[in-house]
Specification:
Elements (H helix, E strand, L loop, with lengths): L12 H9 L2 H11 L5 H8 L3 H13 L3 E5 L7 E5 L1 H4 L2 H14 L24 E2 L5 E2 L18
Antiparallel strand pairs: 1-2, 3-4
Length: 155
Amino acid sequence: MVKRVSLWDAGCPVARALDVIGDWWSLLIIRDAFDGVTRFGEFQTGLGIAKGILATRLRDLTVRGILQTAPASDGSAYKDYVLTEKGRGLFLVIVALRQWGEDHLYLPDDPRSALLETETGARVARLELRAQDGRPLNWSDTHVKKIQPLTKPRG
């Protein structure tokens, strides 16, 4: 088995984010948490994930501050897994993945879930990247300013 390489010290924010949430199980757990799933058994049943893998992902997401445990809301001996503020910050990531999937992975008549506003029932608008002055931006309108690699002192 190939050992997983950590990207935690990378100079790229995308690489560091993937180090925390870069596998599909983690993203699906986060998606389900946004949909109100809180219990180990609910995650396991809904995702069809092996218990050992789920336990590892929940532990990792908790250690990384994406989820936290809380006493069960029904007063039972179980614990709930709930999104932290850091975890709730991933909502736009989940929406972006959803919208990309809608655009590229479905035929026009394929059935799919929809993301709706709770108050109005209307479909949520498309995400857009905007400049500070409000202009829409495309990928070709942006660039990444790379950091200079740290040099080790000669010795």
